[in-house]
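In response to reviewer comment 3 from the previous cycle, which asked for concrete evidence that the modeling workflow produces usable outputs, we include below a single protein chain processed end to end. The sequence was submitted unchanged, and the resulting structure tokens are shown without manual editing.
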Amino acid sequence: MTKVLNNTSLFLLIGVSLLFSGFTTIAEELPLSIGRHLAAQGNHDAAITEYKRFLFFHPDDPRVGEVYYNIGLTYRTQGLWTEAVTALRTATYLAADSETKSEYQLELAVTLIATKNYDLAQLELIKVTLRNPPVQLHRRTLFLQAVAYIYQFRWEEARSVLKDYTVDEKLDALFDSAINVPQKSVKVARVLSKILPGAGHAYTGDWRDGLNALFLNGAFGFLAVDAVLDGHYTDAALWVGVVFLRYYRGNTFRAEAAVEQFNLRQSQRAAEALLQRLQEIVKTP
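The workflow returned the following structure tokens.
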């Protein structure tokens, strides 16, 4: 009888241990599963709450890096860029192996490019390259390096990187066009505006603002001359010193800004064409 009781107690103890072990496993996995489900459903705030719940109760779990990675991606989906960068940096630091670290770093680079932190993105990509990642990760690294260079209008660097990524005649022709894209001179616009107000704007093709500058400066100049001819020298001095010179100098400044905007638009068009072609190459089987 005693032997039977002892065996029963032993089985009961084992059963209770297994039961609690199962509860522990479920308790550890539940926040992660719920977090992934909520993120997939678009309920991002709730997903992050579940991920953080897991981190709070299991700070030493080997999946902590993966959890921070998921948090970073969820923040990025919401457009919370600073939080996304911070979480992805933490995930990279906690990555269990070099390949996982490279994967996390690539997502960090994507996020930095999205926030226009191109130099920081390039730094992360260089770190991945130095790690000699697998071929697929290496190719993605090259692609992202080229994208960052294109956004910076650094055509030659982008072309050099892409030589190891793809050989495409159309892409090469687009790089030639980007390198030779017509640019206007700020110095020329400044000189033209000083000679004839509005001429600097016309130089960039902005005829409306050019005619507006010519009309205003001409009108104020006429009023100043008319005041001199009528012997109203004080009024003439006020027209020249307070009004005319202000608009004359402003006309020169705005002409320089118009040139900068013109050059920026030209470079952006070239960048958009290159990125469009890269997208087509990636989609090609």
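The mean pLDDT is 79. We consider this sufficient to address the reviewer's concern, and the full set will be provided in the supplementary archive.
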